[in-house]
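Table S7 (text form). Paired inputs.
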Amino acid sequence: MASVINSAPKVTVFLCFLSCFSHFLSSPKGVLAQSSPDFACDVENNSTLGQFGFCNTSLETAARVADLVKRLTLEEKIGFLVNSAASVSRLGIPKYEWWSEALHGVSYVGPGTHFNSIVPGATSFPQVILTAASFNASLFEAIGKVVSTEARAMYNVGLAGLTFWSPNVNIFRDPRWGRGQETPGEDPLLSSKYASAYVRGLQQSDDGSPDRLKVAACCKHYTAYDLENWKGVDRLHFNAVVTKQDMDDTFQPPFKSCVIDGNVASVMCSFNQVNGKPACADPDLLSGIVRGEWKLNGYIVADCDSVDVFYNSQHYTKTPEEAAAKAILAGLDLDCGSFLGKHTEAAVKGGLVDESAVDKAVSNNFATLMRLGFFDGNPSKAIYGKLGPKDVCTSEHQEMAREAARQGIVLLKNSKGSLPLSPTAIKTLAVIGPNANVTKTMIGNYEGTPCKYTTPLQGLTALVTTTYLPGCSNVACGTAQIDEAKKIAAAADATVLIVGIDQSIEAEGRDRVSIQLPGQQPLLITEVAKASKGNVILVVMSGGGFDISFAKNDDKITSILWVGYPGEAGGAAIADVIFGFYNPTGRLPMTWYPQSYVDKVPMTNMNMRPDPATGYPGRTYRFYTGETVYTFGDGLSYTQFNHHLVQAPKSVSIPIEEGHSCHSSKCKSVDAVQESCQNLAFDIHLRVNNAGNMSGSHTVFLFSSPPSVHNSPQKHLLGFEKVFVTAKAEALVRFKVDVCKDLSIVDELGTRKVALGLHVLHVGSLKHSLNVRI
């Protein structure tokens, strides 16, 4: 049955959410008494620990680590190679659980974190794909800061660890991928900016010390991992065949940025094989690139349990001891799982790996714990020692979850006079659809218990009187309530249809086959739109995109919004946008393809670039040559923004040495090497004008179309800036372009080159030609 819900007082929509905790928050002593965790090097309670060098906080980290390692037996060391690290009571070291998650808030996934009556929930931000749609790097970092504050508060009362295996920075290569929702999307630059900013937010210590960590982040899943289970091909057996060119210009950049720009404390290697070698057993990928080229300051951890997988599922080695040895020798430091705990001792005794390699691995793990203050005793007197349950789910944190959702929501279609709706003109609003009154769907996966929920129906009902009908019993929508839905839409002043999917259709371990809305959802939408007497707003809740051509081309559907999985406050944010309390600013971080694309392109083909010989169309906006439903960067506003170029060079010269071969013969490109690149940069200045009547933020994208050499992208993102412009006003936006970093491309051998010739820079409809020469 449809239900009529009277609107709550209008003022409630503007209030910050209240914290869900009460009297006990102001009593840290009472709280700590309920949960008294053990701390390593707790000299106050056990003065004999003061004799150990590793407990001496005045020593350098390396000296403390060396002191600890030399005191351990081989068996004890092996206890520190696994996520459920063993205790060593003779040295006052309690057991430690490495596995905690914080993808978009402190999560209950992983054994390291728990919620209970002391901390019943934590702030649940939007799923990453929606936060990425904000294109706001300062927001990425701010969310990380809130999450790490709540994590530290929970650690202090024994409810969380200090090592969080987030973020997921894999490229959203294929629209069917069940975990695309966890990522920042399909673009390497956006993914890199998200990765380094979120990592900084999680890790940066408030005392300014570069060697201290607030919590330790982990960038995963390294590398070329983006398939769960598609048509019988699963992630545990998949061999990702990747060209050197695609590896270096698409799959690796976010990880490189994590390590170099974000100074991340950990990288997690993935289940899959890459070009025939398990990622967690490949010394070139681990020791060679992550630790060698990029200089990781931290530890490398295996996905759970990748070592077991490459032995038992991929049959990469003949014996388990050989598998343990190969992983450690490749550069793995920690195993999520028990495999290294069971088989490393036999590998050492069998001469397959030296104990010194085990020392090196546990030293990387211990150094990370040292930087976190784990070996500094009771943290109550340390920098984050005063944090407790009162610092989790604060009204400010909850308001930021709502703001993040608002910033990410993407307006894809808006016929004249459709949105925003007026809360005074709309007397009754029909709210229909399987995702209209959901709670858990809004927080996606790798979630924690949220502070509280505001469903879309609750958010809308806070503003106007609503009539609600789910329309389908679930998102699979085997049978839709068409007649009843038409009836309430015909009687309402406007209709909001809230559709999409949830973890039953896209999830870890579950890829899609179709990218159409499931079951009878399209029929429900079309029939309701036909019957509706007012504007019809289609709201799509999902991680991945859809072929919704039918709705895009239906004049009766006046507006379309994509809201990702918008987090605990998603319903309030959706209402804020629909009723114009917030001017939408989100832009799609991934391409929405037609169903014909997935019908003909196998998910297992890792090639980014098109192949005209076979008709393979390529992937993502950078290379895909076919039709799209919506493309990367699409998104509308309630106002009109115009761009004007103020300053940009017409040409730039790359200095090369006298005897360089390009002086005597025509070159298509030159190597992006340090000698030529030193201080080679220029500024682009733009004026952004808000020609409309509504103030709002605007994302300015700077794209480049390089010369067609080395199978270069047809277009790639050089930078983005978020700028707030009041109605009828303008703002100045500056981009600093580093020629070798930003304008370079990767050639077929994986070498970074600067293409010579005409580069076309794009900002909106504005184009500017730049000649790059020697």
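Next pair, protein 2 of 2.
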Amino acid sequence: MRLHLIVLLALCGTGTTAAALSYSLRGNWSICNGNGSLELPGAVPGCVHSALFQQGLIQDSYYRFNDLNYRWISLDNWTYSKEFKFPFAISKWQKVNLILEGVDTISKILFNEVTIGETDNMFNRYSFDITNVVRDVNSIELRFQSAVLYAAQQSKAHTRYPVPPDCPPLVQKGECHVNFVRKEQCSFSWDWGPSFPTQGIWKDVRIEAYNICHLNYFTFSPIYDKSAQEWNLEIEATFDVVSSKPVGGQVIVAIPKLQTQQMYNIELQPGKRIVELFLNISKNITVETWWPHGHGNQTGYNMTILFELDGGLNIEKSAKVYFRTVELIEEPIKGSPGLSFYFKINGFPIFLKGSNWIPADSFQDRVTSELLRLLLQSVVDANMNTLRVWGGGIYEQDEFYELCDELGIMVWQDFMFACALYPTDQGFLDSVRAEVAYQIKRLKSHPSIIIWSGNNENEEALMMNWYHISFTDRPIYIKDYVTLYVKNIRELVLAGDKSRPFITSSPTNGAETVAEGWVSQNPNSNYFGDVHFYDYISDCWNWKVFPKARFASEYGYQSWPSFSTLEKVSSTEDWSFSSKFSLHRQHHEGGNKQMLYQAGLHFKLPKSTDPLRTFKDTIYLTQVMQAQCVKTETEFYRRSRSEIVDQQGHTMGALYWQLNDIWQAPSWASLADHELLCPTNYHFLSSLKEAVGLCKAQITAIISQQGDIFVFDLETSAVAPFVWLDVGSIPGRFSDNGFLMTEKTRTILFYPWEPTSKSELEQSFHVTSLTDIY
């Protein structure tokens, strides 16, 4: 057995006492299905789907129709189990806890065959006291229940009135009643994603043993005092005191680069205790603030906090502290009814430009640190400054937010509720309250997070009557809405985090929604708050169709991913736009027809006699269409920043839908083969299908290598619109792509994300332009 043992010791010389022992249970576990007919090893953190794939028992879950073929996995009840021996004398410790950072989702936990607790929330952290059941040699079991079956049971038990929607649209091939389980909502399917409601231990699991007292949690918030013109730091530490007597001592907080150190005397009574500290930064010290990308540096300061307690017990924590203020400004605008909706960072108005973030994979154990960094670096490279963490996914892992802090990416953080109404029975609310309180504590120290939002589109769903609720029944659902997002989530945010604003939904009318009783008659108004806008019928080259709103937090157009992406999850009979595979992969009703319609407004549709050539050209054309549509709409919102026309405008944010994909399928994403669609700006005087004189461009490339970078020297025989460079499955980023090539030669750089060779690139390289279709 691989040993994962951390001894947390004091750092202050002899005579000190070990604060705690932490023993990790990561690594190999045993997994079996409900009737015991299937047993296999599996990794923790991980999930059942990944374990089955790693053992060769299933194919890639994303291959062809496997989202349907493997539905049985999510409908079974799986058990994770492990036996282990402690490498230390467990009897010497007063308190022993089992810590589960993330369980997906419904489980009963047995420790040495004794039931110690249950889990019902993927987004919560669980701690169970195992002091009286732990031994030198131990067994642990997590007996999971299918989240699909659990959700159906919970819905059936809610007999007072229905809580819609029951099921997703048929085109999504998904599971039902996801709003009754606190699990990643898109795991039951979405209009861009598959249904893989898996089971497993998706985050860290460990055992903690301690004497006297233990620091359970430590968090902080920088607060700027405008009247005194100085910074303060509010620090909160949560302790479990197992001593029968009070524990006294001192706390020393130090931020060396700010020449700040302060000492406090504390006394901890037995039981669960909270210590609140207030650290003042002298106004004579210059504090460099954290700024979004493109507006300044992301300066942070190292802070240490040392608890010197009775009995020689010392506990030390360290953290990076960033100082920044954020304000959501909603105020009257001259020449326009309604209110503004924009953000000030450190007192400076910032236009939010970026995208929406969804989970990077259906199976979180496959989301590596390297993948997160590559995706987030791509955001910065594309000159974005904001991502909205959408409410149908997950609260991202710590490293995501740490990278956003480091890179200067502002985060609009939804709570995980989306496109549904939700129950408000006490058990559900208790689970939500624990989830929200935990996530606030976990995330509030990150300067990148600039706003909390209660949900995605649920105010609009309710007030625009997506679910055909009768007018007489609507007050019931409004009451539930206010109970969940205002009386519970908002209450917890206001109590737990004073450093950033909160809105109940997106889209919402902000202050106007509050004035109307927390639900607005038109939550998508151009005069208040933010809007979500989608229009696949109007000509996207005509900027007059777009709303001149205060803030556009969702908008976009679909496209297909590149052929090299699809090729890995399909077979030859799938390679046509009307194949069973293409229809199956499209989860948005009418999406394929909408793409062709929009493309046909300005481009000639492919007419090759070669079916495969037609498929590849059609895929390429949907990407060109998407890029042009998103470009036109984004430019419209940015241009509307500084103008009021017909009483509308003052747009201060544009976040297109969506940055990344979760699988290989048509979607609104701009990233697929980890490539970013970011063409150079240009303007066409007419639709290209009406252009005269375009002839087929013969484009060649000579590839050379300079260190870790590859140089593509391109040469063309004619003007080539929308030149697209493709290197197949080799991950990396071109310095430019999707460009208009009017000059005879052009040099493009390729930055690989994994080691590769010139010969591999030459074999994989393919270039396409619009003239290949014409």
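The chain has four domains: 20-206, 213-310, 350-676, 690-768.
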